[in-house]
Design brief:
By secondary structure, the protein is of the alpha+beta class. The protein has nine helices and 14 strands. About 45% of the residues lie in helices and about 20% in strands. The strands form three sheets. A seven-stranded antiparallel β-sheet has the order 2-6-7-1-5-4-3. It has a five-stranded mixed β-sheet with strand order 10-9-8-11-12. It has a two-stranded antiparallel ribbon with strand order 13-14. β9 (about 190) and β10 (about 195-200) form a beta hairpin.
Length: about 375
């Protein structure tokens, strides 16, 4: 099965290449903001927006008027227009909010370029990119497919990355005949219906004190620079501390995402049908007592990984409705015990059949059973 797969590598550009990357990011941001302004103006005056083709023709004229737009990769500017067009299409389909102007203060800056006549290629421990030439990078894995595009990004930590999108042949995992329910939580990250427990590693909690200390130092340096009427981008001490804080955040994110990838891959590899609950994380974050803990576990990212990996490898993820009382139902007799709403109650006995339940394992079993029921009902409806 042919799929699009991204390979992300850390790269090490020289000084000239860093300057060209900065110019390309700036030009792409300028083009995006310029045509977003035109799009908003046209919509206010006529009730209709612009089209990608009309913007593309205007970009040609704009490059004649502004010489520095010619210095960078032309495909990256077209990609900025395409991203703007896609954002408006999703907005009109009510899939996201309206596009906003890009800022150079954003923590991550990037641009995208496409493969044309071999302008993107890998040569040993170097990657060939338009306008940059050969750039050294950490080749952690081989790309077994045709490269389609490359996204070059610069993080606040000062690191550079290249993400290569390729068309690859993905082999499906063999069937196991296993169906599993996955209940996510805060005490333990994920509990499967077969009793398997994946601990909540709490990467943020482990390094929170160190992060807080470095952030306080950053705040002091910022106040000092403001009192001395210095511009922050000219204050070297502030910039050094900003990078230090960014690298702590990056370390937390990398550890968490690595853990999520490992768990999701194991689950998809060993089970054919996976039942998960449709959690409304945005609503749950309104709980001030639990918002920090909920943000740390990244349930949404975990679900996304399960869904796309299941699609790749020939498995099924069944999403159970958010109003399904997975924790309150007895997985043996089906009795609903409403007292289980109390999160402090980790184990309980069914008053009807006297079955003893672990709260999370019972929820996983109910999610597995409901996933089977949904699939069975769907198959019967088709028949």
């Amino acid at each position: 099965m042919i799929r699009h797969k991204a390979y992300k590598y850390c790269m090490y550009p020289n000084q000239e290449q860093e300057i060209m990357i900065a110019k390309t990011i700036g030009c792409s941001r300028f083009v995006f903001n310029h045509f977003l302004n035109k799009w908003n103006t046209a919509f206010k005056e006529t009730g209709k927006g612009l089209t990608y083709n009309s913007c593309s023709s205007q970009l040609t004229q704009l490059k004649k008027e502004i010489d520095w737009l010619k210095e960078v990769d032309s495909i990256s500017l077209q990609s900025a227009l395409k991203n703007l067009d896609d954002s408006f299409k999703r907005f009109f389909k009510k899939q996201n909010k309206s596009p906003r102007f890009k800022s150079k203060k954003n923590p991550a800056q990037s641009y995208t370029t496409k493969q044309t006549n071999g302008n993107i290629a890998i040569a040993g421990n170097q990657v060939k990119l338009p306008k940059l030439g050969l750039v050294k990078f950490a080749k952690s894995q081989e790309i077994n497919g045709r490269i389609i595009s490359a996204t070059i990004s610069r993080k606040t930590s000062g690191k550079y990355f290249v993400s290569l999108l390729a068309e690859v042949e993905i082999q499906e995992y063999p069937e196991t005949g296993s169906t599993i329910g996955v209940d996510v939580g805060l005490k333990d990250f994920a509990i499967l219906s077969d009793g398997t427990v994946y601990k909540n590693q709490k990467y943020f909690h482990m390094i929170e004190k160190k992060l807080g200390k470095e952030q306080r130092i950053l705040s002091r340096k910022m106040r000092l620079a403001i009192n001395q009427k210095q511009k922050l981008f000219e204050c070297r001490n502030y910039q050094k501390q900003k990078v230090k804080v960014a690298r702590i955040h990056e370390r937390i994110t990398n550890s968490r995402m690595d853990y999520l990838h490992k768990i999701s891959t194991v689950i998809v590899k060993n089970h054919d049908i996976i039942g998960i609950e449709d959690l409304q994380v945005s609503n749950m974050l309104k709980n001030r007592n639990l918002s920090k803990a909920i943000s740390e576990v990244s349930w949404s990212a975990f679900r996304t990984m399960l869904e796309y990996k299941a699609e790749w490898y020939g498995k099924r993820v069944v999403v159970v409705a958010k109003n399904y009382a997975s924790s309150q139902l007895c997985s043996t007799c089906g009795h609903q015990h409403k007292a289980v709403k109390n999160l402090a109650l980790r184990e309980w006995d069914c008053p009807t059949c006297n079955s003893h339940h672990d709260r999370d394992i019972n929820a996983g079993i109910n999610l597995r059973n409901e996933a089977i029921r949904i699939l069975t009902a769907g198959t019967a409806g088709i028949a």
